[in-house]
Amino acid sequence: MITDNNGQMQDTEAAITSDFSLLDTWEEKYEYIIELGKKLPVLEEKYKVEENMIKGCQSAVWLIADYRDGRVFFKADSDAVIVKGLVSMLIRVLSGHTPDQIIHAKLDFIEQIGMMTHLAQTRSNGLLAMIRQMKNYALVYKTIGN
Amino acid sequence: MTTYSTISPVFDVYAIRQAFPILGRMVKDKPLVYLDNAATSQKPLSVINALSDYYTGYNANIHRGIHSLAEEATAAYEASRYAVKQFIGAAATEEIIFTRGTTEGINLVAYTWGRQNIHAGDEIIISGMEHHSNIVPWQILCNEKHAVLKVIPVTENGELSLKAYQELLTDKTKLVAIVQVSNALGTVNPVKEMIAAAHQAGALVLVDGAQSAVHLDIDVQDLDCDFFAFSGHKVYGPTGVGVLYGKRAILEDMPVFQGGGEMIKEVTFEHTTYNELPYKYEAGTPNIADTIALKAALDFMNTTGKAEIRKHEVGLLAYATEQLENIPGLTIIGKAREKASLVSFVIKGTHPQDIGILLDNQGIAVRTGHHCCQPLMKRFDIPGTVRASFALYNTMEEVDKLITGLHKTIKMLS
């Protein structure tokens, strides 16, 4: 029996929100995201294939998931660095949690750090598509796991 | 006789900007710098007022009504058709069909003329710089009719290879569908020459004028094109209205597109006779308000003067090109000898999307991505570009803001 640890996910979100609260200007916020993007480990070339690509993104985004001991682990990459920074935060929050936690994650931190614009459909930069895909993975593993 | 009305007013970009309410707004606490005009242009107050005047003053369904409002609305709608005829130099108003936009105009030709005239083994020529709207309808038609779609290659500097075009033209060529101004590169194609060559080979020509109508002086009779399609919203008019021009003789022979009201003469359950041109192709209640307001947009352009507009835009293009080329690592995609006022570029080590996001935070609206020209992006082996497209209301100061914004953006990304 895997125990859900919602507290841990919320702690991670709180940590991100707290990091951002120190950043006053849009420049500082984006420089921070760009930094996160650059630090995200590069995905091995063999995973950068069509089937791992997230549709609906203006940039190429690859996402893979692994299911171990009842928890889902994500890895991702993009050819655009801001998207990569956003993905990096999502991975930090969602990776290593149970399918149920991921499916029900509210991800309030995105609004709290002022990045809601990236959730809009019109931006076509795919944060929404990414979250959907991560939750899809969780749903699939939940079904298989059961 | 000289009249004062023939003297065009001095082109004053700052005065012109006053006519566009939206240009006064702030984006992210900065004054808006709108450089996405190739996607859609902003609207002058006269266009916005025309829409509101119609709904507040004389909204009615057109053509069949006997009452005063219907008469006024019909008169305004048909006045718009006349304005379009004048704007593109058509021979008669019967040749002007109102559509939803360029895309619908092209599809109308593909579904009517195309289905009647394209047969197995026939060839349709398009170019490598077409918008998806001028690719997909022909692809569908060719697949259905077992016809062949041929593509004029694009040279490294973003022009069409006319030599290759000549070689593609054969006695099997039934149609050439080409863009006059590329939305992704800015290239102005020598369509008049290309039309003459196509006619020599016995093919008809459709010109995609989505980008050209706002920048160039259009004379469909001088071009001798068989079809010309453009959109209202890219010529300072409303969205949802466009124009398909077709030579009268060709339109007369074409089968109908959509069936319904307005396009009929007489209907029985056994048989329907169709209405005259252009109503034959305008089934159902049309987009009356936007069509009427389109006239206000064309009037605005005529008053400003197309030659004056072109002069201003050429100045913006030259200045922007020069300034952009000074940015280290920046490559302009599309260096045709003749271009409309838009610049597409990539910057080494950056993704267009990152540039677009960071420019937006500085109040600067540009387009990033493949610009609905995926085959063209593939041709240049790039995922997309950043595109700055200029309109008559853009200023040199705005070009400076773009350059400053780009320097800041590059610094943030490095």
Question: What does it look like?
Answer:
The complex is a heterodimer of chains A (146) and B (414). Chain A has helices at residues 6-21, 26-39, 81-94, 99-104, 109-112, 127-145; strands at 61-68, 71-78. With 146 residues, chain A is mostly helical. Chain A has a two-stranded antiparallel sheet with strand order 1-2. In chain A, helix 2 packs across helix 3. Chain A starts with 5 loop residues before the first helix and ends with a helix. The model of chain A has no long low-confidence stretch (mean pLDDT 87). In chain B, helix 4 (102-117) runs parallel beside helix 5. Chain B is built from 15 helices and 17 strands. In chain B, the strands form 5 sheets. In chain B, strands 4-10-9-8-7-5-6 form a 7-stranded mixed beta sheet, with helices on both faces. By secondary structure, chain B is of the alpha/beta class. Chain B folds into 2 domains: 9-38 and 305-413, Aspartate Aminotransferase, domain 1; 49-302, Aspartate Aminotransferase, domain 2, CATH 3.40.640. Classes of the chains: A mainly alpha (146), B alpha/beta (414). The A-B interface holds A 26-27, 30-31, 34, 58-60, 79-83, 124-125 and B 28, 350-354, 357-358, 361, 368-369, 383-384, 412-413.
